Amino acid sequence: MENGLENITRRHVFRSLSYTVLFSTVIALVLTGIKFGGGFVDNFIISQCIGISICSLALTGLYLFKPANPLFVLVLVMIAIITGTVVGWTLGSIALGLSISLFEQRFIPVMILGIMFGSIISFFFSYRERISGAEALIQEERIKRLANEKEMAETSLRLLQAQIEPHFLFNTLSNILSLLDTDLERGKSMLADFIHYLRTALPKTRGKATTIGQEMEMIHAYLNIFKVRMGDRLRYRLDIPEGMKDLPFPPMLLQPLVENAIRHGLEPKIGGGELVIRGHNKRDVTRLEVCDTGSGLNEHDSSGIGLSNIRERLQSLYGNKGRLILEENRPSGLKATIEVPHDTD
Amino acid sequence: MTQTKAIIADDEEQLRIHLKSQLSDLWPELIICGEAENGKEALELIENYRPDVAFLDIKMPGLSGMEVAKRIARICRVVFITAYDKYAVEAFDNEAIDYLLKPVTLDRLKKAVKRLQRQIAASSKPPSDLSEIVERAIASLYKKGTSGYLRWIRAQHGDGVRLIPVDDVYYFQASDKYTLVLTKEEELLIKKAIKELDDELDPSQFWRIHRGTIVNAHCITQVSRSLTGRGVVKLKDRPELLTVSRRYIHTFRQM
Are residues B96 and B160 in the same domain? Predict the structure, then answer.
């Protein structure tokens, strides 16, 4: 892949042949200048035939064998030069109506010139190829870096924008407002839950590192709010082993999955349903599952920026070791699993 | 004067209780003849009681408030209640329909009540062009939602069913009766044929490049032409090169 030989394109072939014709013309002129051979027309035709033969043979060889080893390339090109000189000289002689005998004395200087010029031109081609290859590599790197930077900027922007969903904000405030008239104590506790949630959800008030335990407390507050709003339609259970609660975990990574489960799974379902968050601590991965028995996913539903956001964050935090997996839950609803490696900070 | 009747539909009980108590302060003569916690119940209540006014939450399970309104346009007046729906609010900026934003303040509710009382006193019939307005509002709401194209791939995996967003798929490759779905690091087999996928996927993102291949255009890094005239597609993060057959090479010529 590095040597770029796999991608011999039409443009490539055309360019090589044009250069060859140009060089052959120059060689014919030089040879005529030093009074070698039988005049310019003879020199021109023989030189073109040899040049084009060498070039065609070299390209064909490279295309057929796709050599990766530079030594193999060298051998291939040398064979092309020798064979090409013989074939080209023979063709040129036929075209000019000259006798063709390889043992003729005339042939020896032609062979020497063919090898000499063939080597120089081949060196020129390989040099050019290497430079354009290096340039392409640099260009590719630059594009990659720019794309990366752009992606990072977009992710952080989306993160900032997608913190608090307006529906959630206003519906919660409506509930609190109404509870102030009817059930002051419940109103107060809902407000306390809401404040707890906001502390983590707002990027400016949130600490950089959190633990699974802290995230679960926040999610608990979030679910309490929905419990007031949805009543019997929401049942939930948090099932996290004690030992997992002190493990570090990025803030607001799990919450969007809980939000999705409620917003797209349970809230739209007439009877509501159950939400379960489960933690598994395996030898080298921490796994958290959010399962709901809601209305599930339609194949035509939009994929939403929430999930791609989580994927991007997992990618930037853990590389290929962090995963988000979505599955159908049985008998209904959705199961979302986040896996992160154990001992990485 | 006959008594005015109303129903309230909202999936959140607390908000129904609150609206009811606010209304009883502002409009003591109003009779709340029923409360619904989803669209279907609201429709049944309206058909049974034939109220003059329906207070409908827009986002409800089953049928949304808008869909309910569409069906009962000629029966009663509608006041929508919504937490936040930019599109809906734009669509309702019309005398025929009133809307309340959550949290509903007493002042705003007072205005809505005055307006309802005036309309009911002036004519006994609700505006008949209501359904058309609601229709438009629903259309504008759905515009931003689903596009109708396939957004998720369901694939059997172990003993469960995995869901993969189509954006994560690099390409689809036909394999006998099945189709191979290739993402950045996974390969899954699905039962859907490549032809079906071609019909269901968004053609601006997923390009058929071969009888057996559909590629995600967002994952292409390079397209070159081989000596034999076929196209060769290079993907990001995946080593393999895909072949573009002559039949589909025009996709790239247009670029």
Answer: no
Q: Nearest-CA neighbor of A27 among A104, A96, A92, A102? A: A92
- Cβ neighbours of B164 in A, within 8 Å: 326
Among A291, A229, A300, which Cα is nearest to B61's? A229
Same-domain pairing of B23 and B112:
yes
- Looking at the fold, whether B35 and B103 belong to one and the same domain comes out as yes
The residues of chain A scoring below 70 in pLDDT are 1-8, 100-105, 153-163, 204-205, 303-305, 343-345
The partner residue sitting opposite B103, judged by closest CB among A170, A230, A267, is: A170
Q: Where in chain A is the domain with CATH 3.30.565.10?
A: 166-341
Contacts of A128 (CB under 8 A, 6+ apart): none
CATH T-level topology, domain A166-341: Heat Shock Protein 90 (3.30.565)
Give the nearest partner residue to B14 out of A179, A267, A299, using CB atoms: A179
Rounded CA gap, A211 and A197, in Å? Answer: 15
With beta carbons under 8 A apart, name residues in chain A contacting B104. Answer: 174
The total of other beta-carbon atoms located within 10 Å of residue A59's CB is: 20
Looking up tokens 């930019």 gives: B86
ipTM (interface pTM): 0.78
| A255-274 pLDDT per residue, tens | 999 999 998 899 989 899 99
Write phi, then psi, for A217 (nearest 5 degrees): -60, -40
Residues B12 and B43 in one domain: yes
Averaged pLDDT, B159-182: 92
pLDDT of residue A344: 47
Residues B87 and B25 in one domain: yes
CA dist A110 and A116 (Å) reads 10
Q: Give the span between the Cα atoms of B141 and A257, in whole angstroms.
A: 24
Residue of B nearest to A180 (CA): B18
User: What pLDDT does B252 receive?
Assistant: 78
Residue A345 CA to residue A306 CA, distance in Å, equals 23
* Identity at B207, one-letter amino acid code: W
The model carries a pTM of 0.68
Token pair 């005036």 in the structure block, residue: B118
Q: Calculate the CA A300 to chain-centre distance.
A: 25
pLDDT at A233: 94
> Whole domain around residue B70: which residue ranges?
5-143
Which distant-in-sequence residues (6+ apart) come within 8 Å of A197 by Cβ?
A218, A221, A222, A225
